[in-house]
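Below: protein 1.
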Amino acid sequence: MAFHIQDRPAVPALRSPSTAPALSGPRQPALLNVATTTHLFAGGCGDLLGFSAAGYEPVFAANHAQAAIDTVQANFPAVAHPRCDINNLDFRHIPRSRVLVGSPICKEASPAGRNSTASQQAAGGAARTGQWSRTRATAWGLIRAAEVHDYDVVCGENVPDFATRWAPFEPWLNVWDALGYNIDIASVNAAHIAGEGNEAAPQHRNRILFAFTKKGLPRPDLQPRPESMCRTCGPVQGVQVWAKRFEQTGARRVGIYGKQYRYACPNVRCEAVVEPVTRPIRDHIDLALPGRRFRDGRANCKKFTPYRPETRRKVTIGLERFHGEPFIAILRNHCTVQSLGEPIGAITAEGNHHLLVQPSRSRTVDDCDVQMISLRTKARAQRFPDTHAFQGTTAADLTRQVGNAVPVNAASWLAERLQPSLN
């Protein structure tokens, strides 16, 4: 039986076009010759939605999970969608397309994977662990596909650690060069990526986007230029500025917003640091949904289970900081609370980390109304429209699809940037 993401009760459509996550309105001109796409690791279909909205025609999508394949079928019934292990897929038997879109598994390369660089090796410096072997296998699968189909463009998304902590990353790029591809990599945040008719995500999600284009084709412009506000010049398009160590010859510019790079005013007489304009998560949360009092303990437990002292501490911080306004307590290490007036922290594929807190009149912790943000809110944070039908039989099926997906706005932005290489 299919299990669709929905709130309790069903959430009505967002009330205004400015808050709706649907990809609609004016877009970039469609490709002169419609480019076909192949999607490996299709997941929740974020990349299929983004590329389709930009004028591409998906012809093939694969994933190892049945729930993900069911989601492809529900939303893109005309696309061939076998369930298969990408590592063992015979690419000779799949349709030819101009573009290959594939974002290899990234969990173990991310902070959520709880891996250090040293964890790539077993005790005594022997073979790598199974998880890192899995990353290596899926990443090399893109090369296997390109050897067969000689795509015009190969592209995808991953966490920055894929480039900085996966030891074979540079050799992997060398193979693409040997296959005749130019290499372009951009560090982006989903909250800053937008375009005409393509609103930014209400989510801070640091990722890299890679595009390998056949030598001889125009190289894409992958420089993000988010709408920003300069205190001196007013509205501008920010220019990415990197820390000094990235100015060294041969340094690969991969990093996280606010740590390795910022944005500056493009006016040469100013060049002040600017902040990109972002969209708040508030517009994507239904505050009318009932929760439960903090004193009543955690939901979905067979017996009374109180919240941890650390959670109580974070709620206390939020009550003091936001003066009775609703807020989110972030149940991750090294995080506390955030306002609903800013993008939400990164949505993940496993676990719930965002506790919505609505203070009572008494503004005491025990009387606060609390609930984990809904799966629908998480999907909106990834820029999925409410009409997108996720399939699955368990909540875990849905959480993985939403958390693992490429944000729809980021996929659409990448697709539009690739158009000059394909026309």
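Below: protein 2.
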Amino acid sequence: MFDLSSVDLLDAFTRELRLCKLTEGEHVVVLSEPGSRGDYVAAAFGAAKACGAHVIAATVPGGSPAPMPSTHTGAGPGLVSVLNDTTAQDLLKSADLVVDITREGFIHAPVQQEILRAGTRIIFVCDAPDVLIRNLPKESDKDEVLEGVQLLKRSTVMKVTSDAGTDLTVQLAGSKPEFQCGFADDPGRWDHWPSTMVLAWPEISDGQIVLAEGDILLPFKEYVRQPVTLQISGGQIEKVSGGAEAELLNTFFDDADDQWARSLSHMGWGLMRTADWFATAMYGKDDLMGMDARAFAGNFLWSTGPHPVLGRESYAHLDIAMRGCTVRVDDTEVVTGGRLTER
């Protein structure tokens, strides 16, 4: 029996790198660690060659600075072997495009910003093969998320409500809205395949978040079974109450021993229409990052811990994906009852 899965992967990676505007003669570094998927390294290497690029596959020692298991958590702390090695950093800075196939990525590591300032494009890839292929982005996805970014930039308040009891007011001043569209096509751009979302980094938010049954806690990759109520004041989680998941969150915050553990970080909404809310239940926890949940069209995603706009470095990073919310940005309703508002 022939194993033809590599054919699908090579095709998907080639299409992805072309969305990243990889051109003939550019230089690509495929960055991996010993625990990375070898088939992804091979597919990225072959795709870069198919695009006519120069390509180097660089495998560095594993080992995260974060005090938690490396199970595709989304914390993005980077690898100690790169964080402490200027030669490795210089290699990445010299590339036109880095295909990051490490287990956790570098999104919350300050060194990544140095690499991006050198003009390097970075695309981070870590979900399961069928998740990548099913959620392969389209060029038009970028136009849609940019509309959301512009809306956030010209607005002052984001209001999030739900029938479950969420009533959160978010101040948008200085929140530096961003986006993910699933490909990195501009110099100095980082992105994540797969992902389609709009997000902001607010300092102040107040009110109440109520997690309903079926909302998803990441990186635990667990569905909420009993409602959880979080009281928010000045961008801080003041109280968490409810069932077993409330105890899980409180224990995480306490055990983190991190001053920013209960501080809200980025928040926004998903636009990935191909995402499957139930994907989180279909895989082992070590098999996927969970971007179906994070970027699901019409979700409300909020997080805790690191906040680069405020200069907060933290390993206590949670992403919590919610359904059934209504998200209003000033006078514009972008999500209604958990569904994207078509405009």
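The chain is about 25% helix and 30% strand.
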